[in-house]
Amino acid sequence: MLRRLGTACLALACPLVGSAVATADDVLPASPKTVTTDARCQQSLTPTCLAHLSVKQGGQPAASAAHSSSPAPSPPTCYYKQDFTYPIPASMQTSGGPTEMSVQEQECPKGAGQVGLPLKFTPVSAAAPVTDVRALVDEASKAMRIPAPQLSLSPDAASTEFVGVPVWAWIPSSEWVPKSVSVSAGGVSLTMTATPEFAAWSMGDGGSVTCRSAGTPYPAPREPKPPERSPDCGYTYTAPSSSAPGGYFPVSVTTHWKVAWSTTTGLADTEPELTASSSLRLRVSEIQALVMRVQP
Description:
There is one protein chain. The protein is mostly beta strands. The chain folds into 3 domains: 2-57, no CATH class; 79-124, no CATH class; 134-285, no CATH class. Helix content is 8%, strand content 39%. The protein has 3 helices and 16 strands. The longest helix is centred in the middle third of the chain and has 11 residues, at 133-143. It is rod-shaped and about 140 Å long. This is ATP/GTP-binding protein.
């Protein structure tokens, strides 16, 4: 084999400059040994070829600089980039379905092979519009109707009250209940509720009374002995209204309502209280007692 290698070297005038590696199959039949040939040939007037044989028992041939190389770099790959979107005609949309079509264009660097379609179409749904909760709150506030309180007195306001006689004051219980209103927009619903807290009575003579309830109506006449004073909302005058303008006391009541709201998305908050007022005129007289001298 060495003779074959030398003859070939002379015949070719050793065109190789540098080093080359021959495997074991080129030198000997297959065996457990590894044969490596390092041939250095130089071209001159008299070509020569020097061959060096090295034999290694077992294992794989040592790595040769002529055969070793870095792993081949991975070929560049194509990718898709967002190009544009366009709306799907309303006639082609379905309930809850996509409203737009996204178009992506394939970009391929130099040397990359195109894979797939040059354009990719993806149905997308338009983002749900953001609901203005503040606008819903304002709308609900405008829709909220707090009733003007109906004043009820005993003795009746159409008659004359008297100094020192307790006056019962109340508002019909049908008015003293929470009021609610609901509004919706953009798939969001908001419910606002107003709840009565207290009623402030101004009695016209400079006095006032705050009632934490609607008050208690004066008992029916059939009760054998009704209480003298209201248990929760009453007033007693200490002076007549004769000195007031027109001879009447201006009596008014203002109901105060706390306001809260919540949405179907979990938001909740409170708003400034709401009020409602009513008024009337009340005549208050004084019962005069005339004491006569009694002769024994």
